[in-house]
Design a protein that fits this description.
Elements lengths: L8 H9 L3 E3 L20 E8 L2 E9 L9 H32 L9 H11 L10 E10 L1 H8 L1 H17 L6 E6 L2 E9 L2 H16 L2 E3 L2 E3 L2 E9 L6 H16 L6 E3 L4 H21 L2 E10 L4 E13 L3 E3 L5 H7 L2 H22 L7 E5 L2 H4 L4 H12 L6 E6 H5 L3 H13 L2 E7 L6 H4 L6 E4 L1 H5 L4 H17 L2 E4 L5 H9 L4 E2 L8 E2 H11 L44
Parallel strand pairs: 9-10, 12-14, 14-15, 15-16, 16-17, 17-18, 18-19
Antiparallel strand pairs: 1-2, 2-3, 4-6, 4-9, 5-6, 7-8, 11-12, 11-19, 11-20, 12-13
Amino acid sequence: EYRMPVDSGVSGLVYREGKPVAVDDYDAWSQRAGDMPTSVFGAVVGVPLTSGGRVVGVIGLASGSLDRTFGPREIAALSRFAQLASIALDNARLVDAAQRGALYDPTTGLPNRELLTDRIAHALSSSRPAGSGQVGVMLLDLDRFKVINESVGHTVGDRLLVAVGQRLVGCLQPGDTVARFGGDEFGIILDDIADADQAHAIAERIGLELRAPFPMGAREWFISASIGISMGRPGRSTPEEMLREAEIAMVQAKGDPSRRHALFEPSMSDHTIERIDLENDLRQGIERGELRLHYQPLIDLATDRIVGFEALVRWQHPVRGLMPPLSFIPLAEETGLILPLGRWVLETACRQARAWRDARPNGPDLFMSVNLSARQFVQADLVDQVAAILRETGLDPGGLEIEITESVLMDQSEAGIRTLGRLRELGVRLVLDDFGTGYSSLSYLKHLPLDTIKIDRSFVAGLASETDRSIVQAVVALAVGLRIGVVAEGIETEEQFHILRDIGCDVGQGYLFSRPVPATEAGRLIAARRGAITRSASAPSRLLAAKPIRGRTTPRLRVAVPRQAPLIGEPGR
């Protein structure tokens, strides 16, 4: 056996040129490999071996004697043999590619559902060694991945899926399997684990790993996942049962924002059926006009006057009664029903805003603000929708604010920034909602065309602590520096009210002033109090006085459309 570099000797010449080469005396040949022995080969011939249209090897013969050389007939016969061998190689390559395409995901290179199911069956085989542990199966669904895919395209989305797959593999043991099921779902086999507690620990580790930012070019992306877990024992469970149970648990985790993973329990089957029924009811409820808006006043903290209202959606279910947003908004987000629901809220709120203005032509104009969900914000015709609703309802664009959460803004490309600019060109004002709960950077914030920052209720609830009070003071100082307004939500105590007023917060809302009420009661509240809460104040309003906020000199009417998380209409808002 002789070994030589691929680019040397007869084989190297055949490989480079892709055609047969015959040499009558290898020892005397000028291109012979220097480290090959002499008086051994005699005459030699080589023909190319191809696969997929390129040379992948060489078939060569040596006569061992100078008396026997290779002419055209021998070269043709050897070339025909190489052709047949090349066909066999191509067939093998195509079979291998077909098998791999049928068993592996082309985007991530991970096993697909079929291969994962087969490996679950092997893991559940009764031939496993005695004393083996349990088998765990996880199904993982990426939250808000569809929004990223729709906003920046499939190229970035595919790169993100590859990166997620790599992180998942890094969280597991060598004997475990990660697979992609398609879309934004992944499957995982946990082979030979001790118990459910270990599965929970692995799910926690996966969630923590996915929360770290994913750098993609000049940007970072943030995602989270909902994970369903099922546990099985060899000889007692089937792959189909485990996958179904993991899917049910995943649906349970996705519907409960308080937890990111869930272990299957038999009672969850009933919950999944109930959830399917609720989706059907919501779809029909939107068509039948079962949605309602309740209004919570927004208060100028310097004068105690009502300067606007936030509209909070409710669902008047024919059997369950009046349902709060937490009961159906996550489902609407997941199923896409948030789009028709959100449009209805925007249109209804703008029409109500115009009605209140018309009823009090000599009174101050109340303001209305609409909170867009991530699914709404990435619609290609969003700006056209808003412009059409303003025309149809007759509401002046300056009487409308649009609220967008930090997570939505941080996930948008330059196209998202252009959408904000087009909304501003309409005359609509923009609010950054839940400020402080996401990942926004100040360098990014200063480039956004914002008019108002809304302080998250979690900081308001902690105002009694020096830490949270310092954070709120810093947010107010930041807003002053950027010449934008500040709104605080979730005010429930007199102490919170006085602290916020003293540090210069512009507007507040919460149960201290009023719970959300139907439009008729909100109208009576305006009329009875003539735009003011019972508390009296002598200090001039920062919103109504001479100092304008980004050119704004009149108050506006404010409405919130549900978003994914945190939900609108939660207690204390």
